[in-house]
Amino acid sequence: VQLVESGGGLVQPGGSLRLSCAASGFTFSSYAMSWYRQAPGKERELVAAITSAGGSANYADSVKGRFTISRDKNTVYLQMNSLKPDDTAVYYCTRGLGNDYWGQGTQVTVSS
Questions:
Q1: C-alpha closest to that of 58 among 25, 36, 43
Q2: How many alpha carbons lie under 13 Å from residue 14 in its C-beta half-sphere?
Q3: Residue 76 to residues 13, 46, 53, 58, 91, Cα–Cα distance (Å)
Q4: pLDDT tens-digit profile of 6-22?
Q5: Looking only at Cα atoms, what is the longest distance across the chain?
Q6: Among 18, 46, 85, 94, which residue's CB has the most CB atoms within a 10 Å radius?
Q7: DSSP the chain
């Protein structure tokens, strides 16, 4: 199983980024997928999750209305709009709800 995140970077407050997670080594369509984040000095937080078929998604209150999780073929995405400095963190893609495989993470920094 491999999960490889990309798309992180430095963005100004109010800006947007789209994270991607390329999945391989398992039947992607059989699993829900999630994005977590961890900021310095804070606990890891579930940001968004999407069902295996992509028909339903859930979001942390802190990102509702700004972030959108989606999936296509063997990739899961996190579209992040109206970014705030508090969104600065390492973002991780996980299989399921974070109870088995994780990617290596991608850094998102929101700063002027």
A1: 36
A2: 1
A3: 24, 15, 12, 14, 13
A4: 999 999 999 999 999 99
A5: 41
A6: 94
A7: -EEEEE--EEE-TT--EEEEEEEESS-GGGS-EEEEEE-TTS--EEEEEE-TTSS-EEE-TTTTTTEEEEEETTEEEEEE-S--GGG-EEEEEEETTTTS-B---EEEEE--
The reported pLDDT for the residue numbered 98 is 87
What is the spatial distance between Cα 84 and Cα 10, in angstroms, rounded to a whole number?
12
pLDDT at 99 over 90: no
